[in-house]
Amino acid sequence: MSPFEYVIVLVSIIMGLGITLVLTGIAQLIREEKSVKVFWPYLIWIGLVFVLHIHEWWITYQLKSMVAWKLPTFLFIILYPILLFILANLLFPDSWDKNNRDMRQFYFSIYRKFFGCAIALVVLSVLQNVFISELPIMTQFIHVVILLIISGMLMMRPTSLLPHVVVAVLLLTILVVSLIIERNSLLIQ
């Protein structure tokens, strides 16, 4: 077993737990759809967190070229999957009110914690890109834009619907466009 294979096991377990949380939450919403009040920006966040899990698992394969692993490096790398798991956990309540599964109400009750964790995720992503992947800081423009958007939402704490809809749609658009632009670099060979 190579060092990468040994290390990736724990990363994969954490990623798998996060994906399980998202898929279980979606299945619960589908199963009990008659009592669910849909809030589509919340559904976009669920989709974004799911895709971020898959993307992180996919990108982690690039670390296969690391020959020697040190515990501090591993702890630094595993923080991103841990934060993704926390985001997935924040997306779904421990239990919904049986007669009132109001996605909008739930979203507004957790979005500050969720955005705080998302900010930590973006900052960590930039740090990992610079220190682990050795990418120039100048290539982190999209990360900075996302950081500014989410930080702005957290500082403004808007209670109206429009800013939340705009941010969810904007981040979904950024994700889709970046996956299209980066498609050739997302190959496993």
Are there runs of 5+ residues with pLDDT below 50, and where?
A: none
- Summed up, the domain count is 1
> How many DSSP-defined strands?
2
How large is the share of residues in beta strands? under 5%
SSE pattern: HEHHEHHH
Shape: globular
* Arithmetic mean pLDDT: 90
Distance from first to last alpha carbon? 19 Å
Characterize the largest beta sheet: strand count, sense, and whether it forms a barrel. 2 strands, parallel
Query: What order do the strands of the largest sheet run in, or round the barrel if closed?
Result: 1-2
Class per helix and strand makeup: mainly alpha
What's the helix count? 6
Calculate Rg over CA atoms: 17 Å
Helix content: over 70%
Could you explain how this protein is built, in words?
The chain is an all-alpha fold and 189 residues long. The protein has one domain (3-185). The chain contains six helices and two strands. The chain has a two-stranded parallel ribbon. Helix 1 runs antiparallel to helix 2 (40-60). 16% of the residues are buried. The mean pLDDT is 90.
Summarize this, please?
With 189 residues, the chain is mainly alpha-helical. Helices cover 72% and strands 2% of the residues.
Keywords:
189 residues; mainly alpha; two-stranded parallel ribbon; 6 helices; 72% helix; 2% strand; globular
Helix/strand layout:
Layout: H1 3-31, E1 36-37, H2 40-60, H3 71-90, E2 101-102, H4 103-131, H5 141-156, H6 161-181
Parallel strand pairs: 1-2
Helix pairs in contact: 1-2, 1-3, 2-3, 2-6, 3-4, 4-5, 5-6
